[in-house]
Write a structure and sequence with these properties.
About 50% of the residues lie in helices and about 15% in strands. It is α+β, with helices and mostly antiparallel strands and about 400 residues long. It binds flavin-adenine dinucleotide. The site of flavin-adenine dinucleotide has 20 residues, from strand 1, strand 3 and helix 12.
Length: about 400
């Protein structure tokens, strides 16, 4: 059952308060580093250790305060608050802080780096020993599906896990791995049955791999959009040993786990899109009321009004789509509707991308300054039209699901 609106509001307000009281002071302590791109990244592209530690610290504090795993299924030891709270929490957080990557964004677990329904597949040692550490943020992870030769076409992964006596040996290369540079563990998708994988009928297995395992190596940090470093890594796996207890879920069922998780990511990205898009509108409206040309505030020029109105209309629709997706699939223990997740992520990330583009236009020259920070949103949403399913594959997914008979709109 969906949580009543007033209770959801209380949770979100509590989270915002946590962000103000806990994350903002810590943010101020590392401002000398985060405010200077030459200090933010080490020469190898990794974040400054103080930034990494502050992120870990805020995760741990949020776990203690009950926010980190609040939307993780209760059966796993999470708060079980569901996907609607998850959507509203990310919408509210990002609306407050905008596209700059603040510490508050580490207060609620990300499906790929922290506890999520992916762990419903954990049994034995993974469930009893590892999961509690994931829930308390003692350890953080990364999710290794994509490879140099396999992004959109994820079935094409070449990383292989071969049996060697009682254990597995994993070899291959992973690319674009978010949090890869700083993770304690990786969930690695590897082919365990080539024939089935080639037929796209299973044959891919998910492995829990500590990043200090011999043969696991962060080969480089990917720099995106002019940054001197980043959060995504290329990872090499060379004969990495994995015991049977490190298999997450059943052998051969990794692809199902991956797709389930990716859909969760689409809801997350939709929520961030509408929140940050609204952050941009709020700033554009304030500026349009204040900035004067030809004797009147620019908000009175029809051309500027259309920029704002189109943005508001698109964000309104995207937020409605996200709220519906979350409410219709509120139980985090069940698979999210694939078509609706694809529609929502497509609509929301594109709405946000245009929101930042139009807001930049409204600000005129000021719009392209670092001071206003709109460029960060433009960069982010350009990326988010690719990561977690490109615009093209999302539409392909929608068309495929329609053809299969899912015509609910
Ligand atoms: C910032 C960032 C973070 C990421 N984080 C992770 C992560 O943590 N873990 C992880 O495993 N992966 C991650 N990814 C990888 C991401 O999922 C892939 O980049 C994405 O799926 C696209 O794959 P690709 O880059 O190989 O592009 P390609 O698959 O090479 O696509 C190139 C172009 O061809 C188009 N195209 C491809 N196939 C089709 C088709 N069938 N129909 C129509 N058009 C098609 C695409 O839409 C695109 O325009 C991340 C990517 C980015 C950019």
């Amino acid at each position: 059952m969906v949580m009543p609106a007033d209770e959801r509001r209380r949770v979100v307000e509590g989270l915002l308060q946590f962000a103000r009281k806990e994350a903002e002071p810590l943010e101020a302590e590392i401002a000398d580093v985060t405010g200077d791109p030459r200090q933010l990244y080490a020469p190898d592209g990794r974040f400054h250790p103080r930034v990494v530690e502050a992120r870990r610290e805020i995760r741990r504090r949020a776990a203690k305060a009950g926010y980190y795993a609040m939307c993780v299924p209760a059966g796993l030891g999470g708060g079980g608050l569901g996907r609607l709270v998850f959507f509203e929490a990310w919408d509210a957080l990002t609306r407050r802080y905008g596209p700059h990557e603040v510490l508050a964004y580490f207060a609620v677990a990300h499906w790929a780096t922290g506890p999520s329904a992916m762990w419903l597949n954990a049994e034995g040692w993974l469930a009893s020993e590892v999961l509690p550490k994931v829930l308390s943020a003692e350890i953080v992870g990364c999710f290794c599906l994509s490879e140099p030769e396999a992004g959109t076409d994820a079935w094409g992964i070449r990383t292989r896990a071969a049996r060697a006596g009682d254990t597995w040996r994993i070899s291959g290369s992973k690319q674009w791995i978010t949090n890869g540079p700083d993770a304690d563990y990786a969930v690695v998708l590897a082919v365990t049955d080539r024939q089935r994988a080639d037929a796209r009928r299973g044959g891919v297995t998910a492995f829990f791999v500590p990043t200090n395992s011999p043969g696991f190596r962060v080969e480089s940090v990917i720099r995106v959009q002019g940054e001197l470093g980043g959060n995504e890594a290329i990872i090499g796996l060379s004969n990495v040993e994995a015991a049977p207890r490190q298999v997450l879920g059943r052998e051969g069922e990794g692809f199902r786990i991956a797709m389930y998780s990716v859909n969760q990511g689409r809801l997350y990205n939709a929520a961030r899109s509408v929140g940050m898009g609204t952050w941009a509108v709020e700033r554009a409206v304030a500026y349009a009321r204040e900035r004067r040309t030809f004797g009147v505030p620019i908000a009175e020029h029809q051309a500027v009004q259309l920029l704002l109105a189109d943005t508001a209309a698109e964000l309104y629709a995207a937020r409605a789509a996200g709220l519906r997706l979350a409410a219709d699939n509120d139980d985090d223990g069940v698979d999210i509707n694939r078509k609706d997740a694809a529609i929502t992520k497509y609509v929301a990330t594109n709405a946000a991308f245009r929101a930042f583009d139009r807001a930049t236009q409204v600000f005129g020259g000021m719009g392209v300054t670092n001071e206003v920070g709109l460029y960060q949103g433009l960069n982010l949403f350009r990326i988010l039209r690719i990561a977690d399913g490109t615009d093209e594959i999302l539409r392909t997914t929608v068309a495929r699901e329609l053809a299969k008979g899912d015509l609910a709109l």
